[in-house]
Design brief:
mainly beta, five-stranded antiparallel sheet, four-stranded antiparallel sheet, about 10% helix
Length: about 375
């Protein structure tokens, strides 16, 4: 009997003991109502009973916010350190989601050790994988094929649902604005965008106008922002004078035409001349791959053709140099020379070219280009 009385007395006078020792009740006992308000637990600092329950509740990993209707939660106690949400699944290193205070990013880990960024800032550029373009040889002149890929747009990671997709340029639904504009001798830019959290494709005759999805300018543009939607450019195709898609091959940022696109056959006699390359190089490129040809009819005279970035002061008389050009000499008859050279283009897709004195024929063509959007 004495033992029974002692236990009864302890239970009556010592709620501090039974809470941590015998488990947490479903309803927190309190002299005040409500004890939990919104998303906070509010013990009376002058009430030892309530403070003991509060401490025991936290120590036993119980939540103090079950059943609340609050839509805002604060974690971290205003401290500049990592904050973790851990899944206790019994592994040595539990999977978790955390806010990394060092790089200000949300990250996730499946093993508690290796972390990956969950999302990025809307101003992030260059996050692009896949989305290569192919000439559709089963539907020549009318369509291209886009491979699947992934991209971050507006801080959201997106993927395509198909490994490849055929895109018909005459289909209105594939065009920004909903109306096809596949005109003759026109560059058509190919974009990927967020369509219901899936990466989808659109065409436009408008080149990119921003360096990120926020619309910032000041660098090489990769984005086209219009109507509240951000489109990430992945390449370009060109309609020829007959409204047929010029056949091409793309690998990464490199595009090579199936057949060279001729720019000029006019001889520039011993002088630098400006040459537009826009028929074979789109606005999303600043580096062209050129085919050069020159011909000299007089035996013993030098045949030579050179190219340079437009407006530069590279060699007033290139005939005394042999860089970025094609030269030759035949002591017995007509001299002909050809070769491939690369050259930077300016913002209007221009270069300069120069023929040696006496050259009787020449040709400059575009064989390919490299884009800066990939």
């Amino acid at each position: 009997m004495k033992i029974t009385y002692v236990i009864l007395i302890l239970l009556l006078i010592s709620p501090i003991c039974y809470t941590p020792c015998f488990g947490i009740p479903d309803t927190i006992p309190s002299a005040r109502t409500p004890y939990v308000t919104g998303n906070t637990i509010d013990p009376d600092e002058n009430n030892a009973n309530e403070n003991a329950i509060y401490n025991a509740y936290n120590a036993h990993s119980h939540t103090a916010i079950e059943g609340t209707t609050s839509t805002t939660w604060t974690i971290g106690g205003n401290t500049d350190t990592d904050h973790d949400f851990i899944v206790d699944n019994g592994d040595t290193n539990n999977p978790l989601i955390r806010y990394n205070s060092t790089n200000s990013r949300w990250e996730f880990s499946n093993n508690g050790t290796d972390f990956f960024v969950m999302a990025a800032s809307s101003s992030v550029t260059g996050i692009l994988d896949g989305f290569e373009l192919f000439y559709d040889r089963d539907n020549p002149n009318d369509a291209i094929i886009a491979s699947g890929g992934s991209v971050i747009i507006g801080g959201i990671f997106l993927e395509t649902t198909d490994i490849t997709e055929s895109l018909a340029i005459a289909t209105d639904d594939f065009w920004i604005g909903g109306s096809a504009a596949d005109n003759a001798s026109t560059w058509i830019y190919v974009y990927v965008f967020n369509s219901g959290d899936v990466a989808s494709f659109n065409f436009s005759t408008t080149a990119p106008n921003a360096i990120n999805s926020s619309g910032d300018t000041g660098g090489r543009p990769k984005w086209f922002n219009t109507g509240g939607t951000s489109y990430r450019c992945i390449g370009a195709i060109r309609n020829d004078s007959n409204k047929n898609i010029a056949s091409f091959n793309m690998v990464g940022n490199l595009t090579i035409w199936d057949g060279p696109i001729s720019l000029t056959t006019a001889v520039s006699d011993n002088a630098w001349a400006t040459l537009s390359c826009s028929a074979g190089i789109p606005e999303i490129s600043a580096l062209g791959i050129f085919g050069l040809y020159g011909e000299e009819d007089t035996a013993g005279n030098i045949q030579g053709i050179w190219i340079r970035p437009h407006g530069t002061t590279w060699f007033t008389d290139p005939s005394t140099h042999f860089a970025n050009g094609v030269t030759g000499i035949d002591t017995a008859g007509t001299t002909r020379g050809s070769g491939q050279r690369e050259c930077m283009t300016d913002g209007s897709q221009q270069i300069d070219y120069f023929n040696h004195t006496g050259d009787s024929a020449t040709e400059v063509s575009v064989e390919g280009y490299r884009t800066f959007v990939r």
